[in-house]
Amino acid sequence: MGGNIVGGDTVTATRSGNVYSATIPAFAYGTAVSFHFRATDGVGNSGNSAVMSYTVQDGTAPIISSISTSPSAPHYESATTVTASVTDTHSSISSVTLYYSTNGGSSYTAVGMSYAGGSSYKGVIPAVTYGITVRYYIRAVDALNNVRVSSTTSFFVDDFSGPAISGLSNSVPGSSTRVYATVVDGGSGVESVVLTYYYIWNGDQVLGTPVTMGDSNNDNVYQGTISGIPVGAVVYYTITATDFEGNSNSASGSFSR
Ligand SMILES: [Ca+2]
Ligand SMILES: [Ca+2]
Ligand SMILES: [Ca+2]
């Protein structure tokens, strides 16, 4: 036995038949409480029971609050950090674990959350395929194995980057010239590829009608045809590719007829 005696009190026991009972008030977690009964008869003779003791345990689970993700709108090419405030009223936090599901809750993957100062804990969900709704919850355990599980939340894995455009090239320039570009979008996919152009001829700038580029054989190489180019013209073109989330990218080239 160790520690300091910091106080004591007397509580009058109440009787039920020959059984006496008394209530000791609540004490802080970890407090060692000793008690005994003293009984006194009608003429003042008294006797003490043996001294008993117990240590106040922590029966309260941690509190999980302020759950957030960074970025607030997750992108399919980036990991998502989940942050939460986890506190325990009576003892200490033993573990904080993040559980996430990418299959609608059929199965969850556990990720340890690390202490990040204050009451903050952070866990990382690796990059997830575009279009998935990720469900997640947090489980916190205190030093006495009291468990708190947060409610389940979710976020949609979005696509914020435009298609990648590469490999601009063109056929041998004639009155009709084909322009090619490789266009790839790993997220929501390529919705449209449009070729806009103008040409300079005899000192005039002539604006062409935009051309929708196609990829009928699905090899990511899109092609469009610019027609009616006079001999001696210099053609300047821009290819604008847009994905199904409305993100665009452009690339430009030129050729002379
Ligand atoms: Ca607790
Ligand atoms: Ca995209
Ligand atoms: Ca193609």
Explain how this protein is built:
The chain has strands at 14-16, 19-21, 32-35, 38-40, 46-48, 52-55, 63-70, 80-87, 93-101, 109-112, 114-115, 120-125, 133-142, 147-149, 153-156, 164-170, 176-184, 190-201, 204-207, 211-212, 221-227, 234-243, 248-256. It is 0% helix and 52% strand. The protein contains no helices and 23 strands. It is rod-shaped and about 130 Å long. The protein folds into three domains: 14-55, no CATH class; 63-156, Immunoglobulins (Immunoglobulin-like, Sandwich), CATH 2.60.40; 164-256, Immunoglobulins (Immunoglobulin-like, Sandwich), CATH 2.60.40. A hairpin with a 5-residue loop joins β16 and β17 (176-184). Strands 9, 10, 13, 14 and 15 form a five-stranded antiparallel β-sheet that branches. Strands 18, 19, 20, 22 and 23 form a five-stranded antiparallel β-sheet that branches. It is mainly β and 257 residues long. It binds calcium ion (CA) (3 copies). One calcium ion (CA) binds next to loops.
Brief overview, please?
By secondary structure, the protein is mainly beta.
Please give a handful of descriptors for the protein shown:
mainly beta, Immunoglobulin-like, single chain, 257 residues, binds calcium ion, 23 strands
Hetero ligands: calcium ion
- Tell me, what's the shape? rod-shaped
Count of domain modules: 3
Overall CATH architecture of the largest domain:
Sandwich
Can you identify the CATH class of the largest domain? Mainly Beta
Spatial separation of the terminal alpha carbons: 98 Å
Report the portion of residues in β strands: over 45%
Mean pLDDT: 94
What's the number of helices?
0
In the CATH hierarchy, what is the superfamily of the largest domain?
Immunoglobulins
